[in-house]
Amino acid sequence: MKKAISITAALLAGSLMLTACGGGATDNISIVAREDGSGTKTAFMEIIDLKGKADPANVVIQTGTAGVLAEVKGNPKAIAYESLGFVTDEVKKLKVDGVEATADTIRDGSYKISRPLSVIYQEDTLMEAVNDAFFMFLKSADAQQIIKDEGYVSLVDGAPNYSAQEELSGNIDVSGSTSLQPLMIKLAEAFEKLQSGIKVNVSGGGSGTGYENGENGTSAFGMISEEFSSDKAPSCTSYTVCKDGIAVIVNSSNTLESITMEQLKNIYDVDAAAAPTWADIK
Question: What percentage of the chain carries pLDDT values higher than 70?
């Protein structure tokens, strides 16, 4: 009986040692990716030099930010990417090439996995006073403070304060990127307090929806979370609301602290010679 207990204890100790190395030192990495059409996915794959490539075999696809965070939180073997502004302390952010994802490193360009969060719109849209007022608000000091408070990176220095126009009333529809959506809701709420006669309706659907609704006029502003492509919305122009880093995240029990761009490319490359394990990430 004592021998059996000793064996069990030894096996448990070995299991704990493997887990401490990051989901099991000999375990395959559980690769998590966003759905096709996600601006986060498009930007991430392009930045790590895998633009247009399919996902690797056995990838776990999650639709939306919440799904990615839930998967990584509950899966000790998982690795994923997600908008920095929406990553919670329930998962662990990895440094990339030794650089932490922060507002300063994103703005100065030392953190390489970052992208713009933008709105697209038709020029004629701004001829409507309510739309133009909201656009001016997005450029204001009021908006820049919210952007900073929510963990995103403001690109506007010396912005003017917003001046409310009390006579305005109406509705504004904004739709698209789920990465920009949480921040846009905060911005819309602040704008509505200043402009009580205007209601801003913010909905998601992904960057693909933002392009489509901006181009066909379903929404006054479409949200995208990638570099603007005029091929996707030829009638539109764009304004960068802020920049956002794409954080590389793992389960909070993972002891890994940093990963390289080359290692990320190998993990997410469908044509990689062999599926990487956590032992390969040193």
Answer: 90
Q: Are 225 and 179 in contact, with CB atoms under 8 Å apart? A: yes
114 secondary structure, DSSP code: E
Strand segments, DSSP code E, in 49-112 are 60-62, 78-83, 91-96
Q: 226, 210 in Cβ contact below 8 A?
A: no
Asked if residue 154 has pLDDT above 80, the reply is yes
Report the C-alpha gap between 211 and 229 in whole angstroms: 9
CATH 3.40.50.720 fits 118-239, yes or no: no
**Is pLDDT of 200 > 90?**
yes
Residues 250-272 as b or e (16 or more Cβ within 10 Å = b): bbeebebeebeeebbbbbbbeee
Same fold, 2-115+246-280 and 118-239: yes
CA distances from 31 to 1, 18, 71, 90, 201 (A): 41, 18, 10, 18, 34
Q: How confident is the model at residue 163 (pLDDT cuts 50, 70, 90)?
A: very high
The fold for domain 2-115+246-280 equals D-Maltodextrin-Binding Protein; domain 2 (3.40.190)
How confident is the model over 16-71, as pLDDT tens digits?
Answer: 333 334 444 458 899 999 999 888 898 899 899 998 999 998 899 999 889 999 99
The ranges assigned to domains in the chain are 2-115+246-280, 118-239
Region for residue 131 given its phi and psi (left: phi exceeds 0; alpha: psi -120 to 50; beta: otherwise): alpha
For 143-236, strand residue ranges (E) read 170-176, 198-205, 221-224
d(CA 3, CA 9): 10
